[in-house]
Automatic annotation (TrEMBL):
Residues 1-15 form the signal peptide. PANTHER family: LYSOSOMAL ACID LIPASE-RELATED. One of its GO terms (biological process) is lipid catabolic process. This is Lipase. It comes from the Eukaryota. Keywords: Glycoprotein, Hydrolase, Lipid degradation, Lipid metabolism, Signal. Transmembrane segments: none annotated. The gene is LIP3. Belongs to the AB hydrolase superfamily. Lipase family. GO terms for molecular function: hydrolase activity, acting on ester bonds. Residues 52-109 form the Partial AB-hydrolase lipase domain.
Amino acid sequence: MKVLILFVFIGIAHSSIIPPQVAKQDLSAQLQELGLEDFELLKAEAAKLKVPDMVIAEGYPVEDHYITTPDGYILNVHRIPHGKSGQSNGKVAYLQHGVLASSSDWIIQGAAKSLGYILADEGYDVWMGNVRGNAYSRNHTSFNPDTDEGFWLFSWHQIGVIDVPTIIDYVLAQTGADSLYYAGHSQGTTVFYVMTSSLPEYNDKIKAHVSLAPIGFMNHMTSPLMRIMAVWEKPLNALTALIGMDEFLPSDGFLSMMIEGICQEGVGQLLCKNSLFALCGFSPKQMNTTLLPTVMAHTPAGSATKQFLHYAQEINSGKFRQYDWGTLQNIKDYKSLSLPNYDLSKITAPVYLIHSRNDWLAGEKDVERLCTGLGNCAAKLLLSDYTFNHLDFTFGIDAATLVYSKVVSIFSRH
């Protein structure tokens, strides 16, 4: 059965994931100079350090918090209470990673270059979430993620209506604040829209929200791998359920085979084989090859297969709505044959959308539609660098100057 799915993917992949022109970029020479053996060694060493270790190594204070959701998931949240100076401005910031990612995204580039450290040095009490199913939150009070299918029966809807609200309530209780600042990347923006539209009372707990590479509607996304998943969403949904492929893991042998089968041969394949880059693409101009072993040691960080199938459904429907579980389950859950749309007009917290032209997942027209639908779209900011890609918001060389400076400025105005 797994072989069948593999052939489905390979058979419809008419173009490689990594564009051919990448081989002509300086990136190729840099990767060849590094060498595969050295790369793997550096990657293995980087993987030994978890987020708290990485923060301590940079000279910042860090705390580990474990939060149990009402449905039993145990979430590991990381806190940087202040910067190196020890001074605080009394403000609380919450950072939410994207799909296949973790809290490492917010500190991976080091001091002065990562949003977590930048905000901490500005005096913010920084909390970095990890949602159910990723490497840091792969725990449950009763389900075993390795053996129990029930652990993986969620999409990003459950993350939006359960995980993020639970974390926010915990953070506010711990800090004594009545509201906080929220910055999210990719799926970290999706779950914000789910939360504040489904639970409108949480709008009052958000001083300002900044969406980096915002994903609501996906009609105009250009990711080849996501296009493939969208075309074959229904059979893939049935087949992955049949074979028990509930977890979307980069280390899974089948997934590696699938991606390798549709990757262009050559130096670009090193990045293409990594499922996160295969999904989102990359910008050679913004790629820090020195940092690459560390990035690939921490990402992808795992997720549920249904998180991707939910996005595939969004692409096909052209709507921002809840997960399609099939007719019988939909009637049971939604009391209707029609899937409920998320009412974006209920989002009254100020939302700032920061996007880029070269983003494979957050298309310009989709971001425009999102802004139009939001109850309070405070601003839509298009980055000046036309090469900036979806992952450059966290890994890009110029992320601090092009993106994070804007986040700090926006937060300071609220």
